[in-house]
Amino acid sequence: MRTTAGWGPGQLAAGQLTPPAVETSPEQAAATAESLAVPGFDAVVRLLTRTLGVPQVALVLNSGAAYWFADGNALPAGGPRALHPLLLQAARSLSSQVVLDAQADERLRDDTLPLTTGLGPIRFFASEPVCTLTGQHIGALCVMDSQPRTELNESEQASLRDAASLIGTGVVLRSYLGRTDPITQLPHRYAFFDDLRKHLHEGVPHAWVIAIDVAPVQRFNAFIRAMGHAYADELMRTVAARTIEWIPPQTRLYQVGATRFAAVLPDHHLLDDSTRLDDLVARLRRPFDCLGIPLTIQPGVGLLKIHANELRGGDPLRLVMNASHAAQQSPRGWAVYNRMQDEQQRQEFLLVTELAAALNERTELDLHYQPRVDLDTGRCVAVEALARWHHPTLGSIPPAHFVALAERAGLMHSLTQWVMEHSLAQLAAWRRDGHEIKLSLNVSSSDLDADLVGRLRGVAERHKIGLDALELEFTESTLMEHSAVNRRHLAAIRELGAGIAIDDFGTGYSNLATLRQMPATSLKIDQSFVRGMGTSPHDEAIVRSVAELARNMGFRVVVEGVETAHIYESVLGMACDEAQGFHIAHPLPSQELPAWLMAHQGMPSRRAVRWGE
Ligand code: C2E
Ligand code: MG
Ligand code: MG
């Protein structure tokens, strides 16, 4: 049957369907889907599906990209990939097209390709051009059915026209909102990507991307809190204006984040002369006059050389952001993207995520316990709990690594909580079995807050452990770091009856005055000196003198890193109260400790030495 409606000057004639079928690439489809994610667009399509009773709707752009719906629902990943020439022709035509029955339509008779959308054969097809508010023709709205029709009546045609016009308005709105920053009026992230893609497809092998971070996010937020949004908007406008003065003519500046600009630079511009970058940083570091208030920012300028073949699947903005972020901390203020550093940060990020999961699930974390022996009696008086992480693919990760990671990622509270719960439950079990030992726990600087006392008391009560059975080990630097603020927390821990040890003593920079003020009960001489005792008379002298001094100041003196019988014997002759080290025992899994305690009830001791005399 011949079509009846909408044949304009560009109407189809038999054998005229010359354009080849167009394959929509997944990339193109994804880009289209994203750019057409207009609020209300889906609703328009559903309305059309119901009004016209058509199962299939597509918006086909004149670029060949298409956005598909079946039964009112958007198809993921752009829908069918092959575009029949009829759809492409409709998208490029300024007039409506109607095919009431493809099998009976003369214009399609000679066509070698059957009319199909990839979702099945099509008998009925109608389209309406889509134009933006500004009159730009962008494609066609197409409706399709596997059943033929006898007519498309006036009211149905009007519905199709209205839907096409609503979509045209929406696309403009989306494009305006998505592509232009309302404050600075600079083109947005999507426009940046489009232009970068175009630039690299114009036969240029690579481009330089520059990103400018105005200020660290926290600082910018603090600025908004103090001054209000109007000042923040004005700041972004003035920073943009100053940056535009610097960038080469014909280069566009884009606003790619709330506090970030970017541009694609002509290649030679930077390679020739890096002083130009110093100049940009200097300009940005000069105070800005923001509504009459002078303000300095903390800019970071990042650079990335990107090759055309790196665009597919890559995220150049993420990479260049890495550089601009690093630059914010550097005195020079600009930095070129460093793949190794990025890789390291990514690994760290992934590891932090996994550590957080490990802390939730608790199957990969474990505690080992290292005995501490009283040198007077030769008996184990305490064990130090040491965390272990058995990563499923990376194997055993040393605590020195993951504790620092937890510290940086704000996970320390939950790690310490887990260590306290786990080790106190274990201590309670050992005590029930008659092992009268104490427990020492390592605590980080970030744990040392008002909460710690309550947490410690809570866990001890739950496991019915007296707090005098516990000792918390803080590093020397932690105890020095926040001297005034934290002295109160430390005093509260002491009041509960728990001991406080200065761990790794000798690696920090405390002087005698600060040492005198530390509210600690014991001092652990760092293992680096102790291990060196066998070979260095200096180390031996250090350990001997520090032990003497510490004991005279009232500390209980513990030596760590006792690796040999020779060192053990040496420390027996010094002012040391306890020893810990591989010679005595390696850190042991909890189930091995009772057997070790039974087998090592009498290590060499001063008492034994005296008896032997
Ligand atoms: P640390 O508290 O000074 O613990 C002693 C470290 O020295 C342990 O290493 C232990 O295995 C090791 N060690 C003991 N005796 C010897 C010896 O004779 N020779 C040698 N070469 N090493 C010896 P580890 O278990 O790898 O722990 C390293 C550090 O990680 C600990 O040093 C501590 O600062 C931290 N850490 C471990 N577990 C925790 C935890 O649960 N919380 C916190 N905040 N830190 C922890
Ligand atoms: Mg320790
Ligand atoms: Mg230590």
Total strands: 25
What structural class results from the helix and strand content? alpha/beta
Biggest sheet strand order reads 16-17-19-20-21-22-23-24
CATH-assigned homologous superfamily of the largest domain: EAL domain
The small-molecule ligands in this entry are: ligand C2E, magnesium ion
Task: Work out the radius of gyration.
Answer: 37 Å
Q: Strand percentage, roughly? A: 15-25%
The CATH architecture of the largest domain: Alpha-Beta Barrel
Poorly predicted residue ranges:
1-36
**What gap, in angstroms, lies between the N and C termini?**
121 Å
Domain module tally: 3
Which descriptor suits the 3D outline? elongated
Continuous helix count: 23
- Percent range for helical residues? 40-55%
CATH class wording of the largest domain: Alpha Beta
Organism: Dyella japonica DSM 16301
Protein name: Diguanylate cyclase
Domain EAL: 348-601
GO molecular function: cyclic-guanylate-specific phosphodiesterase activity
